[in-house]
Design a protein that fits this description.
By secondary structure, this protein is of the alpha+beta class. Helices cover about 30% and strands about 25% of the residues. The chain is built from 11 helices and 18 strands. The strands form 4 sheets. Strands 1-2-4-3-5-8-6-7 form an 8-stranded mixed sheet, with helices on both faces. α5 packs across α11. The protein binds zinc ion (ZN). Zinc ion (ZN) binds next to α5.
Length: about 475
Amino acid sequence: MIRRLALIALVAATPLAADDHAHDAASHAAGDDPGLEISQERLRADMDTIVGFGTRHTLSAQDHPTRGVGAAVDWALAEFGRISESCNSCLEVEAVGRVVEPDGRRIPEPTLIRNAVAIQRGTERPDEVIIVQAHYDSRVTDPLNGTDDAPGANDDGSGSVMVLEAARILSQREYPSTIIYALLTGEEQGLYGAGILADWVTEQGMTVKAVLNNDMIGNSCGADGYCEPDVVRVFSEGLRADSTEQLRARQRRFGGENDAPGRNLSRWLAGFAAQYPEGIQVRQIWRTDRMGRGGDQIPFLDRGYPAVRVTVAVEDYDHQHQDLRTEDGTKYGDTVDEIDFTYLTRASRLNVRALDYLARAPMPPSVTADAAVRVDTELTVHPVAGADTYRIHVRRTDEPHWREQVPEGSRGESWDPVFGLIRDPASQAPHRHTIPLRGDDWLIGVSACSGAICSPVASAVPGGAFAPLAEPESE
Ligand SMILES: [Zn+2]
């Protein structure tokens, strides 16, 4: 008891990790906050423009000047180009695509799938990338109908106009890491555009820090009248999609089923949103996507990249994937008049703030824990570029979230969760750091910090690293 009192006194006298984070967010909010630059008027104007193409269905016209997916992608590329002109050509604008062969499902004939992509190169670590993406293609009831009007205002015009607005705002700043802004097509035909972009990112040799896939962020009420205007859902996978028999064997024995990088990205995003109490909050959904459905985060997860789906808290099934019509007094169809632009603005704000932060944070470090037959735990942390300190996070194995504070050690001692690397930061040799906890009883993770900006946590469990498993897992 005396020990506990002593610890409380110590705690009162020294700033705590959680307080530090709160101060960071406060200074962010008080100072340069790109989230406040989101323009609802521009989101509306872009929405009117893209809905104006009539349909953006992947099988619609490629060569019509004003209607169909071809004209829509051309416009998005041109708009990224105009954004780039206002930042001294800071964006590389590319149509990333290829012809997809018939698949016997939703691609009946060879089809050109083109994504509109803009790359804002990082100033210090250009190969390290954060991707913000939405699917640009739209559909009606029949997934093969490429001719009827398919406005796709919410699904996924809402994510698309957010991506354009994020590019406008963040391209006025410089970041250590690269940001990729992507409007993907082929989603409704089988997640084709996302697969093409994920392969392209791999070919470029990029290290993916995070993928924020935004798919439907523009409504706050369901058709039954149930509303949730203050929450977005963030979906993350539990078991890694790129898992192997060997990894599953190790996870069965030592844990890791709740610590995939996407899961830790979700935890980070929820905590980040909570630092802006006036802003939209995150409900974490710990499954890859909604029941029986999918999205463009999946091709990235399949390749081992950390990705989440950001989407509305309440879906409105009358106004997605529907032919435009009125039946028994009910209007169906994904039209602009059903969009809640206040909700869309707030969801956009969360994205832009998160991108701004992640593009300045280092990569989460790869970390392993040795706790076998010992009273303490030795962490092996692989240094990451741009980090000056590392921060240790812990939780009990049956706790869902990282604790705000680390607990006292096994013998009641207080210990500092923050440590630096004393030797040459350019060295790639792993750093060993011992903490006074019995590792059998805890899940332990580490984030990498550049000043007050810290990465999401990477867990010291099999499969916890923010890297595809194809790269040998550091032991
Ligand atoms: Zn969608």
